[in-house]
Amino acid sequence: MDYQDIVFQIIVSGGDAKSYAMSAIRAAKEGQIDEAKKHLESCGEALEKAHNIQTSLIQDEAAGNSKEVTLLMVHAQDHFMNAMTVRDLAQEIIDVYEVVLELKEKINVC
User: Fold this and answer.
1) In the predicted model, is pLDDT for residue 106 greater than 80?
2) Residue 39 catalytic?
3) Cα separation of 12 and 45, whole Å?
4) To the nearest 5 percent, what fractions of the chain are helix, strand and coil?
5) Catalytic-labelled residue, pool 39, 51, 75, 79
6) How far is CA 86 from CA 26, 38, 55, in A?
7) According to the annotation, is 60 in a ligand binding site?
């Protein structure tokens, strides 16, 4: 597989991860906390794939096989970093929605 294909795999995995994180937020907003958590798991799997690719590139560079840093690689890293941030925020938002739902249930019981 050539370098450009490897870079595209990071972009695709990062994009998938961000999409899963956003789906998790939407599910939590609709009160589907279990579904939201499943989306976050899928997000984590996509991030892990991107991370593994990135780690492989870092190991290659450490072994003296560095690649040119292209605009495409910068774009890939941007996707990856943004996906990690969105995943972290999604987790926090889901936690908040979960508490809100629990409080609503307590109020309705009383």
Assistant:
1) yes
2) no
3) 13
4) 85, 0, 15
5) 75
6) 13, 15, 21
7) no
